[in-house]
């Protein structure tokens, strides 16, 4: 197969990540993961918006993260589910480029958003008295917007550089979706400059925000260790533990996938890593934040109790009113 870049938009790739088709067992597993990720992240968005006590910068960033996770899984999982049941596992040239763009765009946004969340915790713990000033509404909305907009234009050039390469031989992508390493394996000719560009972009979107996160947590841990009370140290660290778990899950897989040399990529290991950051992490994040965060669990409990009380009151009113209405008829004249 020979392609002349973006002009060859009619070319199709074939996704061969799964050995058997159809596979109902895997379909049920992936569908369950998708529904858990959607439900969990939507629940976090709803709870943090419904409870006034959670209208803070920390939970504003958490809502952004949950929206990102919903979008991230929706870029890949619907197509994966379709491929599991269909004999037609093709994806168009432009469709593959579009999927890769949004995958990298949302992943890059999450990298910087996690760095912003680490900075928020740094300000809250290391400069608590100045927190309302340093993290006012204008600042935290600006930081969130910067996380979304930083990679918008950079990635367009990045994707264009990949998909203007000549592709030779097989059009089969040994993966679940259009990710950078498996697509680059189909490219022929001199790909050295593109590989360097990919590495630089990965450093910008993965290593730079990860360095900012490390710097924030070095200061945070230093401040926590200086606290006189053991209870105070434990309570303060607990506010960061959920974020640390999410950072470890996300950056561990991202660094393994995008910062290792092309020669060390193997289809099976790449597919396993891809499942971790595209399926498992978005599913676990809401569980981590809800189970390990007392404010979120408290808000969920208050919201549940409020709705249960409202339902009970409605049932009680119906029972009190209903007997008085039995046996009585309202004439049209009385009604009017």
Automatic annotation (TrEMBL):
GO cellular component: plasma membrane
SUPFAM superfamilies assigned: Family A G protein-coupled receptor-like
Subcellular location: Cell membrane
Domain G-protein coupled receptors family 1 profile: 40-289
Membrane topology note: Multi-pass membrane protein
Transmembrane parts of this sequence: 24-48, 60-81, 101-119, 139-163, 196-218, 239-259, 271-291
Key words, A-Z: Cell membrane, G-protein coupled receptor, Membrane, Olfaction, Receptor, Sensory transduction, Transducer, Transmembrane, Transmembrane helix
Listed GO MF terms: G protein-coupled receptor activity; olfactory receptor activity
Domain of life where this protein originates: Eukaryota
Family: Belongs to the G-protein coupled receptor 1 family.
Record-given protein name: Olfactory receptor
Organism: Chrysemys picta bellii (Western painted turtle)
